[in-house]
Each structure stands twice: as C-alpha cells, then as structure tokens.
Amino acid sequence: MKLISWNVNGLRACLTHDFAASFAALDADVFSVQETKMQPGQADFAPEGYTEYTYSAEKKGYSGTACWCKTPPLRVTTGIGREEHDHEGRVLTLEYPGFYLVNCYTPNSQDGLKRLDYRMTWEDDFRAYLLGLDAKKPVILCGDLNVAHQEIDIKNAKTNRMSAGFTDQERAKMTELLAAGFTDSFRAVHPDEVKYSWWSYRFHAREKNAGWRIDYFLVSDRIADKIKAAEIHNEVFGSDHCPVELDIDL
C-alpha cells in the first residue's frame, strides 16, 4: 500500500502548478493533503478511480484537509471530538479494516509564539485522540505536524532554536508522542539522512536547500516492521512543502 501526504498550501493555487500531474505520477492508494484553504466544490479536481473526502475550516481560505482514496474507507470522521479544536478542518480520520489513517494539519505556533500555549493544549488532546484509536487498531498518522523534531531535521538549528516549529516545547511533545507508541517512518528507514520537506519562500531557501522536515508519516510501533519504504519527494514542486511517502505492507 502506497500512501502520500502533501501540504499543498492552497489546493486551488497548487492546481495551477501541475498538482494533477504530480498526483497521477505519485499514484497513491490514499493521497492526503493539508492546507487546502477552500470550501467543498471550490476546486475542479476529481481524479478517476478515487473517492474524495474533505474537511474544511469554518474560516474561509484557511487550513483544511482532504483525502483521495482508491478503496473507500469503512468510516470517515472529522475533528478529534473536542469543541475547542474542531473548527479549523485539521484532522480527517479514515477507518479501514486493519488500521486508522489520520490526516493532520497541526496548528502553527505563529510568529512571536503567540499560539504556543494553544499548541501545547492541542498536542496533549491530539495525542489522547491517537491513543484512543490505537487501543482499537493500529494507526498511521500523516501530515504537516509543524515541528522539526531533531537538529538533523532542520538546516540551521542554532539560529532557529525557539522559532515556531523548533521550540523546545514542540520538540518535546513530538518526543512524547513517539514514546507513547509511535515510529517516525522516515527516520526508521533513513536514520542519518538529511532531507527536508518544507522551505521558506524567502531568501531562495529551496534553491539553497535551507529547509525543515516537518511533514511525517508516523505509525503505531506494532506495525513498524511492515514499513517497506519511506521517502521525501523533494523533486516535486507546486507548494512550499513537498510530498512525503509511506509504503507499508498491511
């Protein structure tokens, strides 16, 4: 089974930058995207052979998640069941016979870390949500988790320390999530490889490969041995992020 996740930074904009061609070339069984920035019906994209599921933020032009599936899931749920979090279209969960696939766009702590306190609450509540699912069947979590976990995951670790996405607090929450029973698929397959999934639009960051690895596939520890491949497609353009891939035998 081949899974793709991509923060498209606006699906309508990405469609003007060959999203459809990239989608076809990547040929995923489930293709998950984050930051769609749209309401249902605002984009003309209906790939043959796929069923689409979307979850939009109440605020127009903001956040949002979507999945396209070759095999429809048993059930699709939106949000994490907590009122304070479920207005921004951030979590789309697909239930399959043997696992849950959770597509997540984690809140950014923002400039000046003005949303860091909210982010900490989100992290605890989201981890509890994932563990609730994991108690029933294995979980595959994908998406833009808005944190570079270790120094290997960011180009300029020293100068970015305590920037949004690389605060000690956010990194500790990722450590806590992994310790709760999850495996970072890319790092499991490529323990020492330096590869990034997001680059700022400023300062020619992508040309210089001054990036961050903030897009992930995490899997329940008990299915980590089923991982066949984990890749970062930094050759694919169309967004400030690139697609990430998980191949798993489930």
Automatic annotation (TrEMBL):
SUPFAM superfamilies: DNase I-like. Coiled coil: none annotated. InterPro entries: AP_endonuc_1, AP_endonuclease_F1_BS, AP_endonuclease_F1_CS, Endo/exonu/phosph_ase_sf, Endo/exonuclease/phosphatase. Pfam families: Exo_endo_phos (PF03372). It is an enzyme of class 3 (hydrolase). Its EC number is 3.1.11.2. Keywords: Hydrolase, Magnesium, Metal-binding. The keyword Magnesium applies. The keyword Repressor does not apply. One of its GO terms (molecular function) is double-stranded DNA 3'-5' DNA exonuclease activity. Residues 4-241 form the Endonuclease/exonuclease/phosphatase domain. Its cofactor is Mn(2+); Mg(2+). Belongs to the DNA repair enzymes AP/ExoA family. PANTHER family: AP ENDONUCLEASE, DNA-(APURINIC OR APYRIMIDINIC SITE) ENDONUCLEASE. This is Exodeoxyribonuclease III. It comes from Faecalibacterium butyricigenerans.
